[in-house]
Amino acid sequence: MGTDGGMGTGGETALVTTKLTPPTLPGQLVDRARLSGLLDEAADDPVVRVVLVSAPAGSGKSTLVADWQQRHGGAWLQADRADHDPARFWGHVVGALTKLVPDVRTAAGSAVPSAGGDAEPLLGRIANVLSTAGPVVLVIDDFHLVSNPTIDDGLERLIELAPPSFLLILSTRLDPSLRLSRLRVRSQLVEIRADTLRFAADEAQLLLDDGRITDPHVAALCERTEGWAAGLVLAGLSLSGSDDHDTFVAAFQGDDRLVVDYLTDEFLAGIDDADRQRMLQTAILDRMCGPLIDTICETTDGARWLRETAGANQLLISLDSTGTWFRYHHLLQDVLRLEAEQATVDTAGAHGRAARWHREHGSPHDAVEHFIAAGAHEDAADLIYDEATELMNQGQLRTVADQVARLGPLADEHCGTTVVQGYISLLTGRFAEAHHRIERARTLHPDGDKAGLIAALAIMTHLGTGNVAAALDEARAAAAPFESTQAMTLGGAHVWAGAFDSARPLLDQADRMAPDEGHAFVQVMSPILSGIADIETGATDAARTAAERSIDLAERLGLSELTQTALAHSLLARTIDDPASAIESARRGVDLGRRSPERITSAYALACAGDVLAHHGEPEGPDLIIEARSIIDRCSDPGIAGRYLARVEARHRIEAPTQPTADLVDDLTDRELAVLRYLPSAMSQRDIASELYVSLNTVKTHCKAIYRKLAVGDRKAAVQAARDAGLL
Q1: How far is CA 255 from CA 227, 260, 313, in A?
Q2: Mean pLDDT of the region 601-620
């Protein structure tokens, strides 16, 4: 929840680049024309939508698709485990496609799914661009690492929406949960599996030939490895160090597991002790560069070592064209990690050094992963708290939640991660859970920064459940804000309570601070809240300007699908003169407002939209007003949202409660004022009677008098009327 909005330089940018770049192909590349031909046919067939390259590790999947992609063109995405977060995955898909079709990024705008992971708006925009872009191929490698059915559903939807000129190639160890049978029946699927990927003898000859190996040797190794690419590569490495090929080949036998064990022992046994130790220390890394190697191994030649090792060993793979980033072949990495565990390698220390390097080079996600692996959970928790705002602004709630979960018991003992969990609960509509996190965080002795964010969380949670009174109490008790989120939420509590003069300085403060802090959510929300204050005080032009500014910021900052922006679209609908534009804005407000779990946001947006649509004679207008009433009725204190809805109902003759009259306020007696002060609370009339030591009938009588004198019909309206009159 830190205020630094920047990602830093170096690490994160480089790693993202490698995800969108195919791995460098091995120097001794075998041209497998029969397999490339299958991909060629699929790309040329307008019926085929998906090529599934599914086989175990070491089968040559990545090399095949990378070679084909580099010769024929296409977008590349190297998946990793962090891509199970929909916001992260689809953001990378947009980045990959943009390298091939630049208009994709512009069209996608801010439609990358955020908290709810709803990719539908994004997929429609991508499909529209692809329909005018000509043939486009998207390759996703290591898709088995993306373990999220929501993403599988999204890919399936993209396949349905995209034009026939779009082809998706998935390289994976495991079949995805796409409805493959349906694709097969429609002839839309081409499958390349392990048996197809096996090296034939002529292909193995090219892979293994060192000038001395004979055809019988190749045939024997090809038979015993069953054409398995990794086994053959390892065989070639071991053969290069053997003077007696006949003896080696004769001794070489066994199933895949034994083959891997035998050849790996042979391979590692021939490596210099210093190089072997460096490989064991760096096996913890999924990606590595020279400076990172030097930090972990306390060396100075990491970049040179990587380039030289990759030049002599096909199991160290270059990830970019500059020879900066590399990774181990997955099988080699597995073996190195196993040996490191069995040897005296200080893997915890290596993880700790890697974590600090990534933190210093602007790669917080990797830093957290390494801190956790090092057992430095406190450092991981501090970093999660510092970086959570940026990730949540990007919609990566699942990434944050997963990291917090991996902290174990510390997650509920660390004030920062408890606050983070509260915000995740709020953004996903789990308000009771958010209240629990708020109370828990307050027992952990928060400092000034965290105390302010806890108060902001409490205010937003109360507003989410429709309790303006509780939100206003929190705002009045909070310390002066020194961060934009706090200022915005304090201002929001006063806006929804109708205390506009108190709200404006706070919202202005939030507006000034948010850009420097990198708080995109606050930048979008502050104008919305100011616009509500404007329109409620008759400043229509100012409200329109605020709504337009909020919508523009949401587009530029990637938050146009933020459900709270429903308020901006509905406000715009109320303040623009062109009927067609007003109707369009109102319907956009309805679409976003119905997705919002926050009662006041949803009710106010629907009431605005219903008001506009009913005014223009659209048939859904009255229904939306009724829908808004159903939400308001579930709020204990809807504040000005309830008052506005009553005006809308009266205007369209759906319901016509009379509005409070200031002349009658002075008629309230002292006992009626005493009862009035309890009405914003959740206390029942019986509870109020007990608190005031009077009978239940007495309280009922006072309430009837209060409603009559304030010219309202119920308790909620009485509370807001009393606030407007300055009595609460």
Answers
A1: 12, 9, 24
A2: 95
Question: How many C-beta neighbours within 10 Å does residue 341 have?
Answer: 11
User: Can you list the alpha helix ranges (DSSP code H) found in 537-658?
Assistant: 540-556, 566-575, 579-595, 599-615, 620-632, 640-651
Q: d(Cα 579, Cα 53) in Å, to the nearest integer?
A: 52
* Phi, psi at 514, each rounded to 5°: -60, -45
Give the tens place of pLDDT for each residue, 346-383: 999 999 999 999 999 989 989 999 999 999 999 999 99
| Of the candidate ranges 108-122, 213-227, 326-340, 586-600, the one whose mean pLDDT is the lowest | 108-122
CA distances, 228 to each of 239, 329, 438, 439 (Å): 16, 14, 55, 57
The whole-number average pLDDT for the span 400-418 is: 93
Antiparallel, parallel or unpaired: β 326-328 and 316-318: antiparallel
Question: What percent of the chain lies above the pLDDT cut of 90?
Answer: 53
- The CATH fold assigned to 31-197 is Rossmann fold (3.40.50)
Whether residue 366 contacts residue 347, with contact meaning beta carbons closer than 8 Å, is answered with: no
Is residue 659 within 8 Å of 711, Cβ to Cβ?
A: yes
Second-level CATH architecture of 437-651:
Alpha Horseshoe (1.25)
- Cα distances (Å, whole numbers) of residue 104 to 41, 84, 125: 26, 22, 8
Topology classification of domain 662-724: Arc Repressor Mutant, subunit A (1.10.10)
What residues have CB less than 8 Å from 105, skipping those under 6 apart? 94, 95, 98
Handedness of CA 206, 210, 214, 220 (dihedral sign): negative
Place of tokens 């049978």: 181
Taking the C-alpha atoms of residue 675 and residue 689, their distance in angstroms, rounded to an integer, is 9
The angle, 0 to 180 degrees and rounded to 10, between the axes of the packed helices 640-651 and 599-615 is 20
Every domain range in the chain assigned CATH 3.40.50.300:
31-197
Backbone torsion region of residue 142, taken as left when φ is above 0, otherwise alpha when ψ lies between -120 and 50, otherwise beta: left
Distance CA 231, CA 227 (A): 8
Q: Tokens at residue 535, please?
A: 């329109």
Q: What are phi and psi of 225, to 5 degrees?
A: -90, -5
560 — pLDDT class (breaks 50, 70, 90): confident
CA pair distance 68, 54, nearest whole angstrom:
16
Closest CA to 711 of 652, 665, 644, 680: 665
Least confident of 117-121, 486-490, 628-632: 117-121
